[in-house]
Fold these 3 entries.
Entry 1:
Amino acid sequence: MPRFFVDDIPAGRYILSGEAGRHGAKVLRLRPGEAVTLCDGRGTDFPCTVRENMGDSLLLDVGAGTPSRGEPRTKVTVCQCLPKGDKLETVVQKAVELGAYEIWPVESRYCVAKWDQKSREKKLSRLQRIALEAAMQSGRGVVPKVLEPAGLRRALETAQSAGDILFFYERAARGLRSCLRGIGDRLFLFVGPEGGFSEEEAALAGELGARIASLGPRILRTETAPIAALSAVFYEKGDMEP
């Protein structure tokens, strides 16, 4: 069923206009009687029926709102150190599909990729667009935010005051399952760039209360690690049950 995010709370008869309306009317060619879902971006879904296709917008009959079933109880921020190329786009897309609450690009010692001030706004806009499309496709109730990049220390200090931290380090002695015991429902996952984290960065994370975790004996690509970690976290926390 087509799904669209709207900025206001729909009720009664509602005109879906703008880019979403044009997509529904011209690309999907939705006809009277067909069902769509509107989401207010705050976790509430509104079942709708197309009343009229107006060429570049849709007139909808809106039903009663219900809580979205696409939001996990555990709010996880993926703190991904800047990778090369378009790998961050893959991380954003897949993390949103799985249920991430936020994606936070982080700058660490071994990051090869650098975001200059000139390109930052354009890159963030593209990543946020990818997050929106992934949220629509996967039935999310909110569109996760892609935050402004920050240095590793700042990100760790912010995470320390807001929830629990899992810091993935290839030399860690503890496995992920062990680190998840007793963890709360607000979680920050830190994943290094292609070169991983330095020993000093891992030590800093430990000093700030992070649980230093391993993702197993196999070496994962930087864009694979957050997806593996999210899947494991949501499974262990019961957020993958129907």
Entry 2:
Amino acid sequence: MRHYFAGSSELMIFAMQELARRIDARVRTHARVLLDPEPAPGADRREQTVRLLAETLPLDADRREESALWLSFVTAARIRPELRTRAVELQAGLDALVRRVLIETERSGALTPGLDLDLELETRRLSALLDGLTLQAVQHPDLVGPDELRAVLRRHLDTLAGS
């Protein structure tokens, strides 16, 4: 590895870029469906939203490893300035995804009519929920499984829809 990377920071940044690329590829598949201005007849926008956002959660062994790597990187970035910029960029990317999903959810009429959505607050709330679910599922995979992660995410979206 020393032939390819100048040091551990460069290796970590490469690993995080690869992780972001993998997640982005999965998310883009769902985003194309969710953000289609003319959805397929009978499309369940709420379930499409759950599937898209769930791609950021540790629902299986591969995504659990990705989530553990993400948490390690974010923790290291707190004390290693050379990693901090990339960690901030990756978080901003997740926040932008969440914001776009919320905008689309509101636009599609999936929210309670007349609900005055505070986009910045709801973006932060949903991002924090995804972060918290990820942390709990990585720390306690036997206690917080994929079905529970999806159920919590659905319940949160239901609160936005007034269900």
Entry 3:
Amino acid sequence: MLTPKLEPMTDEQYLRYRQRAEAKYAQDIADSGAMPLPEAQEKAREDYERLLPDGLATEGHRLWTAYDGDDEVGMLWLHLEQKSDGLHAFGYDFEVREDLRRKGYGRAIMQTSEQVCRELGVVSIGLNVFGFNLGARALYEQMGYEVTAIKMRKRLQP
């Protein structure tokens, strides 16, 4: 059984993450059909600047690198927020290194993150997943995540 450990992301890891993540997020927005790529790139840049204005030091946000031994296998970004019924977490990003996907690392990182959240007293974890990401959707559903909203559209071709 895989048991990755989560370590706080270093400044160097954050810089590498931020470059690739912002570009990937923009491409995902465009691939979802929500907006054309140029607008998606601007939205991605604005979202990252708004959400992480102080990078790793942004209050309430925690970014981890996941390790299997000394090997970097993925990452996790959670936002923690106190609400009237307790501490809630929202997963802004989660990834497994591309060459390690479909080998159990995603599930293992999610399980480790749930354990960390339990230790912090988190009462729920939320996340967003693009509709076209069927693999991620299946994993989250298998792990007990429930759909709380669905956004739909119909493309009209002239």
